[in-house]
Amino acid sequence: MNVLDYILINKRTGEVISDVAFYRTKNQQKGWQEKRRRLMARGSGQDRFVACFPATMNENLGTLSLSEAGALLKLLFYLSINQQGKLVVEQGMVLQVAYLSFVFDRSRSSTLKLLKSLEQAGVLFKKRENQFCTFYINEKYHHRGRLNKRKFVKLAIGTYSLTHIFPLKLVEAGFLYKLIPYLHFQTNELVMEPDEPNLDQVQPLNRNTIAGLLDCDPKRVTQLMNRLDETGVIRKSRGKKGYTYKVNRGILYRTYEYNQGF
Hints:
By secondary structure, the chain is of the alpha+beta class. Helices cover about 35% and strands about 20% of the residues. The chain has 9 helices and 12 strands. It has helices spanning about 25-40, 55-60, 65-75, 95-105, 110-120, 160-165, 170-180, 205-215, 220-230, and strands spanning about 10, 15, 50, 90, 95, 125-130, 130-135, 140-145, 150-155, 235-240, 240-245, 250-255. The strands form 5 sheets. A 4-stranded antiparallel β-sheet has the order 8-3-9-12, with no helix packed on it. It has a two-stranded antiparallel sheet with strand order 1-2. The chain is globular and about 75 Å long. The model is unreliable at about 1-5 and about 35-45 (pLDDT under 50). This is DNA-binding MarR family transcriptional regulator. Keywords: DNA-binding.
């Protein structure tokens, strides 16, 4: 039976409502809401995360401003599964500039400028599909779905990550994005040697080393780190050579295996 064969009748008034796109029974609606809640809270299988590849991310980190990097981080939450990097709001609905203006909290012109910069950097591209332009993430840098053996950092996709990342301004989100390649695979701390198994040989990143790596004023590093600490994205700890920083494992997690972490 086609969806168009269905009608709704108001039991109280007897009114026939014929223009029905679809309907769910109460039990179906309850089941759908529960499934959506579970997926948003944890994800399942390939839904759980976006893979970030530090080796290739490092190639473009210097070319992106903090705002551009922040826009890229927020775009990753719309990455579809095994569709060559296609960005979608939900199944069958592509991201459009008006929606991205809301996501970025920027004007249309500013949003278009950010998208153009990401295209020029090679991390984003677009295709004309029907009457719309569809945006794609270059899978050289990020992928969602099944993976070959490759070192990567997981960015969790779900309510927990969303509630931490989306309130951030683009500059704050971009600062976090640029720190992803420095996440240690055992401790989840920001370090110079993220693949080093001997923890005695690991050099934690402090304010000054981060400032040097990201070409950022040390005072600005302190401001941004304080913001990430306040929001629970990063936890600061005082060490012998200043503060050290550990990233929330529920948001970002460096791994060599698909099933490790969340």
